[in-house]
User: Fold this.
Amino acid sequence: MTTVRLTVNGVQREIDVAPGTLLVHAIREQVGLTGTHVGCLTGDCGACTVVVDGATTKSCSVLAHSADGATVETVESLADGEELHPVQRAFWDEFGFQCGFCLPGMLLTAKELIESTPDPDDADIHRAINGNLCRCTGYNTIVAAVRRAAKEAS
Amino acid sequence: MSAPARSGIGASPRKRDGAELLTGRARFLDDHRPEGLLHAAVVRSEIAHGRIRSVDTTAASAAPGVVLVLTGEQAARHAGPVPYFIDPAARGGNRTDIRCLQVDKVVYAGQPVAAVVAHTREQAQAAARLVRVDHEVLPHVLDAHDALAPDAPRLYDDWPGNVVMHNRYGTGDPDARLAEADVVVSGEVRIARSTTAPIEPRGYLASWQGDTLTMHASCQNPHQLRWMLATALGVDEGHIRVVTAKIGGSFGLKMQGYPEETLVALLSKLAGAPVKWVEDRRETLLAGAREQTHRFRVGALADGRITGLVNEIVADIGALTAQAGWAMPNMSATTQPSGYRIPDCRIELDIVVTNKPPNSAARGFGKDAAHLVMERAMDLVARELGLDPADVRRRNFVPAGEFPYRTSTGLNIDSGDFHGLLDKTLDTVDYPGVRRRQAELREHGRYLGVGLGFELTPESSDSPGTFVSGFDTTTVRMSVTGMVTVLTGVTSPGGGNDTGIAQIVADELGIPLAWVELVQGDTDRCPNGFGNFSGRSMVVGGGSATLAARDVRAKLVAVGRLLLGAGEVEVRAGMVCGDGRELPVPEVARALLTRAFAIGDIEPVLESTRAYKPGNINHVPDEFGRIQPYPTYSSSLHAAVVDVDAETGKVTLLDYVMAHDCGTMINPALVEGQARGAVAMGLGSALSEQLRFDADGRLLSDRFKSYLVPRAGDLPLLRMVHQVTPSPFTMHGNKGAGEAGVGGAQAAVANAVEDALAPFGVTVRSLPLTPPAVLALIDEVRP
Amino acid sequence: MRFTRPPDLDGVTTALAGGDALVVGGGTMVVPELTHGRVDPPAVVDLSHAGLDGLTRAGGWVVGAMVTYTALERADVPLLSRVARGITGGPQIRNRGTAGGSASYANPSSDVPACLVALDARLRLASVRGVREVAAAEFFLGAFRTVREPDEVLTEILLSDVDGKIGYLKFKLVEGSWPIVTAATVARPTAVRVVLGGAAAVPVAVELDPPPAGTTDPAWRAHVASVVERGIDEAGGGWDDVLAPGGYRRRIAPVIAARSVADALGEVTA
Assistant:
């Protein structure tokens, strides 16, 4: 066991992790934030997406040790109390999810996109969320949600 | 009836679980971590077929953190066979005992043979890799046609062969029709093995308090799971509580009947602690969804009318399973000839086992394959006769005035307007415009194609004597504060029927949607029910909720009459109104429940539990032995426009239209969500998804880089057009809306690719149409 | 398993000196391998603090081994910036994955190795024994095999300026698949060089005649087919995996090559 220091959603945490522990498991099990999901553990589905030092990252492909000292934001950081983030509101209004399992990845990736690309077209949106699998929606409503979120943010 | 309120039937309020899902607060199965939790890993067979000589657990038992290692022999001392969801023996087929861990034989690579419980998941997985299984390797068979050979290796020693059952469907004399037809067209459809692959894998968490088991499960059918666990473990049902957590997608895969359900419950009992098991992605991808071959012949008259159909189906279900998946090919047979008026049909079905993992239930439930066959047949007839494929369909559809219509296979289609769907689709996709563009592009060596696919989707099945039930039960309970709790036997794996049922209840009671709470997936709280499958939740969950809500409303009205002293009383927008006066519903509720004796002769209960059985189901076999297991039949017409790169074989979807008719829509946005999801799944299986095995039967496509489900950039806007032809047999005229799209999408794509490549003269015979497969089609006909 | 994250390159080479450690860069390839028990090294060396993330314009370009695809996307490195934009897996992968990592991993179904060969890149390897530079064309030995010794680490990719027109094409089955065949072209007036990725176990470099009558000219296409097929055969034949058989890759490689040349020459495709 080694101690790893993380700042998660603004709170400094010290956690003890075994060698080989993945960041996603550290976040879910040591930090106790279960909004970040495990769907494949191969970096393919995107359900484990978090923001590490300002950049979206698939937390199943990062060792917890490698994140020592990092700032991590999870899906739980998006809302301000009961006040949803514009991206969350847009996904809700546009039916951009069904089961919701892929949401952490979709929301955080969408947020990163519209922060760098205020007026994304469909190709921008596809390129941004191509690393996130959704099996429920066929993606159309997700694309619409990202578009709406971008519009409301600008 | 008044116009629908913004949140009532026909409106599209947002999903009620949005806030918890969007903020990460929702708790899925793996998010539950009770005190003292242990973790399980399953040791799976590495060979496709063999006898187990011994299982050596020495090294695993000594590994760090290990609490318990269980072999099949040990498990068999504590648990009986897992009972079938649908027992093949009850349908005259062959069966075998399904065990939570195999005892003496394995019949597929991936079959559970032992299990490890340890303090952490990593410890359990590491120890599982140390279990050594000594086998006598037996010859295996991976292809259903090979499995039919008399000298093929046999999976189950006491069976005469590898056939679970052979069935024949249809009426009339198709051979005579074919003999007298102007043309006879024959074709073949091979559907490769795909899978549903929900993003959340399957998982279970079992804990015992004394002799009482609580099982959290990522599962669609809590009550059936409770019965199965009770049967396998020899525990009274009253001592088992099943709670289905938030479910991260399901699509049939999470119907119960898996070995791991009994296994996890048993491991927890033996370990004396809560035990959780969540499968990894490789394990999720073991479960197949469909794999079958159809050889068909149709006879047609010169005007395109089809007079007879003969179809031989060989379905490869992998190994037999207690899950419902093995039975899907039956529906491939009975769903033919779909919505076409072809009275003379014969469909022969062989359901065959092979040394591959079992097929699990999957959205479409075999019905999808029927459409691929019928729609290929339509296009082949059109091609043979030089007719437009749209016209051939128009000539063969059951006309709107002929419903209810009984098909050759016995299905009694409730209602529909298939010509209307065709018109809407052709109009929306601009069929003449696409044909013009196609001609222009061909001049430049580019291959555009348009394909149609009609789908008739029988929904809300009832299979007599099984837990495939065509009714369900709901309790509506109003508290003293006027708030309403709805407890229902149907579950929501994500599609949003909780929102739809709440809409119905709010509408029926005349109260705001926000006053309604839903409880689903808890066998201790909800009335006995059957969960989610077959597009049933809004039909029977919604129907039973309606009946129960009407009972409660009637009580409010009765009390309101007394309190208001009015003759005519109604409830709307949370107020009981009569004679120009009104009282808030909570006040009326409080009056009844706190002043019962003052109120007088009204039974002081604001609660009702009702079951709803839709019409049109008929289990009395007719003169041909046909039963009628479905109340409702949704219908849809799909058009896919594709570009085919003739140099690489790559198919690009340019446009997609689905004209959809599921009767009354309770929440149109949720209906569209279901339809788009099903279409996306159909498109995936049509173009890229395929489970592949090596020559030894080991799964090769074991991650999302090798099992290719559609990503955002793969799909165009899936355009939706609605037609509403209410069902006369359901409460609100609504029909199932959970499955329509898989088969229509497959068919539309298959036809579009063949249409695009018409200048080459290719014939599509298999799915998926991956670039290598499409290029092979072109090569086949290239001089 | 020992985990170290050295603060500089010396620390990295020291940690690797035993020759038994696994190098983790962005982690997108090797961490899942660790998770699923496909590799089980006694030690892991994390490069992220070793100062290898420099991206500098110096005559050509020096691309540190830890420069992410996202950093490449935002820069204007010939070909590599364009490749970076098309990396599969979403921004989360591009935010962590590196061209250096892709080169070191040497997955035949990756387009970075072939692009580095097309750019005549040199790869700098460091160990406690010293530093050496290897031409990209000599770096890749086979599927998942390079000349990198177990105690070495790739530190930089060195690129000279390109004096020809660049073209690039990546063919995937669908968005989620590994590349099936990629083609990077450097076209000069007298010679056209195309390097194919995914087609064989290692990048396949071929020299083509410039197309005298456009890239769709059947005679030139026949020339491309014969040269490309010969190149693939000499590299051991078409790469065969669960996504596509070798025969398919060999079959479409000339098409992808020709389209890449069209891209380099600025031909407008239909």
